[in-house]
Amino acid sequence: MLSALAVAAALTAVLAGIAGAWSPCGFSVIETIGTALGDARRSVTLAATATFAIGALAGGALTFGGLGLLGGLAGHASSGLREALGGGLALAAALADWRGWRIAPQIRRQVPERWRWIMPLPLASCLYGLLLGLGFTTFVLAFAVWALAGISVAAGSGAVGLAIGLAFGLGRALPVLWIAPRLHTRAGDRALERLALEPRMWLGMRRLDALGLGACAALLAGSSALAATTLDGATDPSVDGPVMAWQRVGGPGVLQTQHATKPLPGTLPAVGGGNRAWVGAHGIVVKRRGHPRRTIPGPALARVDALAISGSWLVVRDRSAAAIANLFAVSVTGPVQRRYIAGSATPGAIGRPTIEGTYAAYALSSPAGSRIEEIDLATGRRRVLRAATRNVQFVNPSLNSGRLLYERLDRCAQELLVGSPYDTAHDRVLLTLPSTATRDPGWQAGYQHNWNSASLCPNRPSGHGGAVTLGATALTPARAYVSESPPDLARSWIASLPLSAARPVSRPA
User: For residue 387, what are the β-bridge partners?
Assistant: First the structure.
């Protein structure tokens, strides 16, 4: 599923490609293919048109897909800076295209004329399409082309870059596909004449590009605002559209919107479904914009250690006086309506909850294994989303837009994965850290160790494990957030990763 940025950029790329038809190369290719160099056979024209389209798609994919991969090499740590720069470039290009400013820098190079005399027309047309699809090998007819290159790098994803490139190649091919086969007919000649005599159409395409670039800039700015930098001294992220909340280590909860960042009068903040919740001085406070605060009386507040909220339900995790952990849900509209979810006397057995709509999910670990369970709070129906009986632990799930974000821990690694809640076939890895577990080398110093029976890990040696532990997560349609904690918990931070940077699961059997 393409992100909103990918869709907006792809639509803009189609328009930028169509705008290229007003270049000298665009007219030349239409006439070359439309006349078939004097060959009267329609099959030659159709074959040349098809190969031109193939070349244009390939050229766009090479340029913008390659730029997306190049941006991804910088890693997620620089994603905020890339998005800020990409958004700024998109906004500047939008202004320039809307005003119809002269393109600068301009590439004053045309496709080689001699190719059409020394090659079969379909082959020459394919190469012409490739050059035009590359975007920067001939005349550039919109600032959007430069901006789309920056957006591809900012996205840091080969998939997003590929979508932009294919869309750009399609835009370059559409005028040729529409006019060239009809040339020397009344409709075809009229279309080519209008193309040549109506420069206002070109300006109109550039202005449509400007609108698309404005949307891209807004999407990049929104992502950058939530994740331009790592949040230091922070844990337990919670995200609801443009609103983000987290727990400041040793301090209050923090709420960040598009307009301000402010501390909350309480701790353990959670946002979701337009609601905001936190543990206040006299109860669990639920606030919805434009509505008065509501305080939900509940268990001893000192024992509440996790919250999750949607538009209709609040999920609470607390500890009883006997140190038994409980997970239960409270209806936001009618606090007397409650549903018990899970309980355990084992410390840490019940993980931090997540909720989307009426569906809540949580991790549950026991000597028998580890699993992530989902419960429909409206009906009580339960479902196991992930499960393992030994050597693997699943923790910290987050639900959003039909996706499940979770962590998988084993003796070798800590993995942050995203995929469908109900299918593991397409799970993707967003982040991998070494396991924090200490590993025995499998032999004793001073003795032969020809028969090393220690388990091997591809990402770490034996000895003490990694120093950073993955923690609570949050998920949006475009980004994942994860807490990371070193031994000094006061230095914990929240990292942000674009979902577009996810890679296939690859681990030894």
Answer: 371
